[in-house]
Amino acid sequence: MRIALIGYGKMGKVIEEIAISRGHTIIAKSNSQQPIESIDFKQVDVAIEFTAPHFAVNHIEHCINHNTPIIVGTTAWNDQLPYVMDYVSHNNGSILYASNFSIGVNIFFDINKRLAQLMEGHADYKPSVEEIHHKQKLDAPSGTAVSIANDILLENENFSSWIHGENAPPHVNAGQVAVTSLREDGVPGTHTVAYTSEIDTIEIKHTAHNRKGFALGAVIAAEWIQGKKGVYTMQDVIKL
């Protein structure tokens, strides 16, 4: 495949390394000095986008307008997802987005959903989510933590909302899930879900050792979306 990287920071560089190792070509790179408009999309098979929330929708539109499938790793733009889904549909485009492209994290998402289902009948256990990332990460909570918390709400009717705390767990009322964000040097990403009662605690945890898992998943997603039209997530990839 001929890949355009939209965003060429730390993640873009790791994606480049992995894509080349899998036999693909990085045909274009876009960053603040090289805007997306400078890319000749006639030569591009797929774009992989890791930038910032306020750029994401514009980048999606640009790729759809140029009939180029786009893999979106940027998070915190999902309030505009209904618009994007409509735009993709009306323009016969292709997009695959995810809060986290790691294969391990996406398996973790499924485990989290199943655990939430199992715990619905055990109201004495209170769920909480904790995410730890490097200090350069701008958004909090992480997109992955938001996905985890939302899946708990979806699968467990005892809880209807989540509340966020930075550097310390927030106070929660009945029906709320605590989501805590911590920022520490050199942490690629750690997510923990705990169900705690007076008697014991049940915990599941995913720890990323580096960025390679995220980058590999993004490249696998780019391979998977070839020839497809519509809106997809990483869950579509791992279920085939």
Q: Report the helical percentage.
A: 25-40%
CATH architectural designation of the largest domain: 3-Layer(aba) Sandwich
What overall form do the CA principal axes indicate?
A: elongated
CATH class category of the largest domain: Alpha Beta
How do the SSEs run, as a string of H and E?
Answer: EHEEHEHEHEHEEEEHEH
Strand fraction: 25-35%
Class per helix and strand makeup: alpha/beta
Largest sheet: 6 strands, parallel
**Strands across the major sheet, in which order?**
2-1-3-4-5-11
How would you describe this protein?
The structure is a single chain. With 240 residues, the protein is of the alpha/beta class. The chain has 2 domains: 2-97 and 212-238, NAD(P)-binding Rossmann-like Domain (Rossmann fold, 3-Layer(aba) Sandwich), CATH 3.40.50; 103-208, Dihydrodipicolinate Reductase, domain 2. It has 7 helices and 11 strands. The strands form 2 sheets. Strands 2-1-3-4-5-11 form a 6-stranded parallel sheet, sandwiched between helices. It is elongated and about 60 Å long. The protein starts with a strand and ends with a helix.
